[in-house]
Design brief:
The chain is an alpha+beta fold and 164 residues long. It has 2 helices and 8 strands; from the N terminus they run E-H-E-E-E-E-E-E-H-E. InterPro entries: Polyketide_cyclase/dehydratase, START-like_dom_sf.
């Protein structure tokens, strides 16, 4: 299954990339993540691993499988966690629009747990939830850049991302 989330931000692309490339500090911009534990010795780049701890007590472990500073892109793979997923590969990209605006893209391929029933539930609910939460995370990059404080728990962006 697939969901792609696109959010335009009123900050320079280099600033957005700097925040997203701070791999072990996603809690600054993600409204569901309370803290991150670095797993292993790599802080960033291919092979870096993290555990994202959610406000609701759940968590996921992820590892970087592609890292491209020049093109402001990385790709992470779901390793384990409390989300109802067998697998999940997420690409995060930052594109420059002009000197003060950028476009962030979060492109997710996922396979829900629970077979056919899981696929129906994902079609009805999970895809919409992914779109909403990931849009809020991408908009959270601008929030953090402007306010210099973490996005609050459960924060909803005042602007809606495009979900395709």
């Amino acid at each position: 299954m697939h969901v792609k989330v696109i959010q335009e931000l009123d900050i320079p692309a280099a600033k957005a990339w700097k925040l997203m490339a701070d791999f072990n500090n996603i809690q600054h911009v993600h409204p569901m993540v309370v803290s991150v534990d670095q797993l292993g010795s790599n802080e960033r780049g291919v092979g870096a691993m993290r555990r994202c701890n959610f406000y609701d007590g759940g968590s996921i472990q992820e590892r970087v499988i592609l890292w491209d500073d020049q093109n402001m892109k990385y790709q992470i793979q779901f390793m384990s966690g409390t989300l109802p997923l067998n697998s999940n590969t997420t690409s995060i990209m930052v594109e420059e629009i002009d000197s003060v605006k950028c476009r962030m893209i979060c492109d997710v391929e996922y396979d829900p747990k629970y077979g056919f029933i899981g696929k129906i539930m994902a079609s009805l609910f999970l895809r919409r939830k992914f779109g909403s939460v990931l849009g809020d995370m991408l908009a959270g990059v601008q929030y953090y850049a402007e306010n210099h404080e973490d996005v609050p728990e459960g924060w909803n962006s005042p602007t809606r991302a495009t979900v395709v």
